[in-house]
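In this section we walk through a basic example: taking a raw amino acid sequence and producing a predicted 3D structure, encoded as discrete structure tokens. The instruction is simple. Fold the sequence below.
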Amino acid sequence: MIIGASVLQLPAILKAKEMGLYVGVADYNPQAIGIQYADEFFNASTMDEDAVLSAALEFKPDGIMTLATDMPMRGVARVAERLGLPGISYATAVKATDKFEMIKAFKAQNVASPWFFTVDSLEELKALNGRLGYPCIMKPTDNAGSHGVVLAKSFDDLLNEYEYSRENARCGKVIVEEYLKGDEVSVEVMVINGEVHILQITDKITTGAPHFVEMGHSQPSQHPVALQKAIKDMATKACQSVGINQGPAHVEMMVTKNGPVMIELGARMGGDNITTALVPLSTGIDMVKATIDVAMGNKPDIEPKWDLAAAIRYIDGPQGIIHSIDGVDEAQKLESVQQVILTKAVGDPSVPIHCSNDRIGSVIAQAATVENAIKACERAVKTIRIEIE
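The resulting token sequence is shown next.
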């Protein structure tokens, strides 16, 4: 059973069918793209734990998962506990989806992480005046994709941006934390029977302040070998601190001048095409299949098949209404380019990049070196011409 049937879950649905499995999906949207490829559909929101559990009790799955989204992991964990299926506990799912509970777990296990304060109201925020260092980050405790994330250079910035962060928090709670300076990386992980396996380290680029939206990824990491070991050790400790003992994890950290420091993690595969595209292209590991296998109680194949490089670059454009998009076929034919994906079309607005949904599309490339993979992406992005009304 796969929780969600949107385009994000499509790789899992298609892979499960390719594996010969009978697939049920749950989604609030009866028009979700993945439904047509599944065997059964349950009209249940991925965020509604009771509805997900009810659907699962009817479907009786042998395994359950979601791909690249955080909050549905709570429903997945409830089902796994109720039906005795492989997966993380509900307590771990909460720690992996609530940034307050997560950072408390990091602190309890001495995992390097930022100073922080949680805020339930404007009054609580005002009470922090004089106790904070600047710049600092404010973000929802329970959202992803850079929704509601802001950089504050002063207390007035926090006051002015508080409503923006709060309205992106499902529970209405935000967290104010230390601003970490350095190079951001993520670590793609598979945990099997409590043993943490590091599959790949991803170097990232973002828009920077104030919203830090990811605009590019590349693998393998170009950091020195000794630093990569410290990154891997940090990822292992982080997974163990929140109790991830089965399944994938996506661990994000900042490589600071004092070494790696945790940002956050998800008890699921990484999004942004990192684990569905880049990991297979750079290592040959089919992480979607491995995740399904773990969920079914089978031994996954996580042995690297090759040592290549992969990169993705996201597309933005001038602001306005998209009048035309040309050069996509030309970009797709360029050497090393594997995939060109457009997430907006003619007639859609092109807006400033405040969150991942604001990006226009992406280009994915594979090459012998990271430098060549990145260059291929950049050539393709330049080939795509977007005109704005």
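Looking at the output, two observations stand out. The mean pLDDT is 96. The two ends are 44 Å apart (CA to CA). In the next section we compare this with other chains.
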